[in-house]
Design brief:
Elements: H1 11-14, H2 24-40, E1 53-55, E2 61-63, H3 64-77, H4 83-88, E3 100-102, E4 105-106, E5 122-123, E6 137-140, E7 146-148, H5 149-154, E8 172-174, H6 180-195, H7 208-221, H8 224-233, H9 243-246, H10 252-275, H11 278-281
């Protein structure tokens, strides 16, 4: 560093050029390399893809045996111990309902023998195009048959070209999507299915119906109209407290509001009964008159009769 004949290099000498953003060509090359890898390897286990192949709501491809191992290990050790696996699956796979088995057609060698799993060549059953990074591919839910996207658009319809199973445009899932628009559409579809209590495979999620029904009941109890109906229809009998009609209300806010309304109505009812009681009216006069018989015994005082002996 000093007095040894050496030199200390400056930053200008070490950094010859400033960092540049990758060009469009470089970005496309990187995306193509990434797609080539995930078209041939499982996104979870990183092993070569082999039949049967499944896909989730994001369009990623997995080996089915890797998904089964992931679900078994998650059930045994819990979600926190499988952070790496959950990151690879984006947290979208919690059961087999969250994946669909993709019906790929594998090109066969001469003699009808399928190629090895490490050399799978997936093709469109209609057009014969090889599915991969150079051809956009989609699969249909719930049947799972895969086609080239251009083939499905040309053969416009609402039935699968292989099994004639009906499908909607929302259930046409792009395989390994790269554009932001396609990814956003898949996220919107997943959130919509979740609100409907359905999984990616369009199967019902256990317990979703009870949860939606419970939320609906709680929402109805919190509305002002329902509170008013409860207060009007469940008037307590005379001499009983408001707790008799509020025991059946589970929502605390609604129960307290109903109790308050019933207490006020009971108080007004007591006042009306007191005002209409003739016996109580005789004890008090509406006009104060201190002369003789026109005044009541509370206001006229004591007077000695004129004929009385002293």
């Amino acid at each position: 560093m000093g007095n040894d004949g050496g030199s200390i290099p400056t930053r200008r000498e070490l950094v010859k050029e400033a960092a540049k953003d990758p060009s469009t060509t470089q970005v496309k090359e990187t995306q193509t390399e990434k797609l080539q890898y995930y078209w041939a390897h499982c996104a979870l286990s990183q092993k070569p893809l082999s039949l049967p192949i499944v896909s989730d709501s994001t369009g990623n491809l997995y080996n089915k045996d890797a998904i089964l191992e992931h679900l078994i290990s998650t059930n045994k050790s819990g979600q926190e111990d499988n952070v790496a696996s959950n990151e690879r699956t984006s947290g979208t796979i919690r059961s087999l309902r969250d994946v669909v088995e993709v019906g790929f057609k594998v090109e066969e060698e001469d003699g009808g023998i399928e190629k090895k799993s490490t050399e799978l060549r997936l093709v469109c059953p209609v057009s014969g195009k090889t599915l991969g990074p150079g051809v956009k591919a989609v699969y249909l839910v719930p049947c799972g048959h895969a086609f080239a996207e251009s083939t499905v658009k040309e053969m416009a319809g609402d039935q699968c070209l292989e099994c004639d199973a009906p499908y909607s445009p929302d259930n046409m899932i792009p395989i390994l999507p790269s554009s932001t628009t396609e990814k956003d559409r898949l996220r919107e579809r997943a959130s919509k299915l979740q609100s409907m209590g359905l999984a990616h495979s369009l199967k019902k999620v256990p317990g979703s119906g009870k949860k939606r029904k419970k939320d609906k009941v709680l929402k109805d109890e919190e509305t002002p109209d329902t509170t008013k109906k409860i207060a009007d229809s469940k008037m307590p009998p005379s001499g009983t407290g408001p707790s008799l009609s509020t025991n059946a209300i589970r929502n605390e806010g609604t129960a307290s509001l109903t109790a308050k309304v019933l207490a006020e109505q009971e108080d007004r009812s007591k006042r009306r009964k007191i005002a209409s009681n003739d016996n109580l009216k005789t004890l008090f006069s509406s006009s104060i008159d201190m002369s003789g018989k026109q005044s009541d015994f509370m206001t006229r005082g004591f007077s000695i009769p004129a004929g009385a002996k002293r």
